[in-house]
Amino acid sequence: MERFEGQCLCGAVRFAITPPTLFCAHCHCRFCRAAHGAGFVTWAGAHEDRFELLAGEDLLHWYQSSPQSRRGFCSVCGSSMFYTSTLSPGEVHVARALIPGEIDRAPQAHVFYDHRQPWIDCPDEVPKIDSSSQILEKYQAVE
Questions:
Q1: From CA 122, how far away is CA 115, in angstroms rounded?
Q2: How big is the CA angle at 38 (ends 36 and 41), to the nearest 5 degrees?
């Protein structure tokens, strides 16, 4: 699969990812919900060497959402776009909805599923991983 590109709502900040991605997952943590104003956020993770900012570096602003994590957004249209953290060094997490079309993998999990909103029901076959899982152990400092 060739690289895939995405952009913010207004198109001022554009990026590309060269597969393979590291993961694709739905996050239900309170930080992701608040940052995106949504019930959960789907992220595609990329190694930083496979991520390229194509345009809008001067328009990309970062918010330090916790001591170890920051979130990137377009200063023109406000699109929440990226997440980086010392908890996942060398990775850039990209809001999946900003990439049109298919990527190299479908969502593989619902993470922080025990933190989901009570009005969210996910009857799909995608695995549900609670915050107590060892898989998410390194992210517990976020909550």
A1: 13
A2: 70
pLDDT at position 142 is 42
Residue with tokens 């995405």: 6
Say yes or no to pLDDT of 26 above 90: yes
Pairing of strands 80-85, 60-66: unpaired
CB atoms within 10 A of CB 130: 15
Is residue 14 within 8 Å of 55, Cβ to Cβ? Answer: yes
| Rounded CA separation 85/141 (Å) | 11
Cα of 54 vs its chain's centroid, Å = 18
Model confidence, pTM: 0.90
Name all domains of the chain by residue range, CATH numbers in brackets: 4-142 (2.170.150.70)
Chain centroid offset of residue 120 CA: 19
Side-chain half-sphere of 83: how many Cα atoms within 13 Å?
A: 22
Q: Are strands 4-7 and 91-95 parallel, antiparallel or unpaired?
A: unpaired
The answer to whether 51 and 30 are in contact (CB under 8 A) is: no
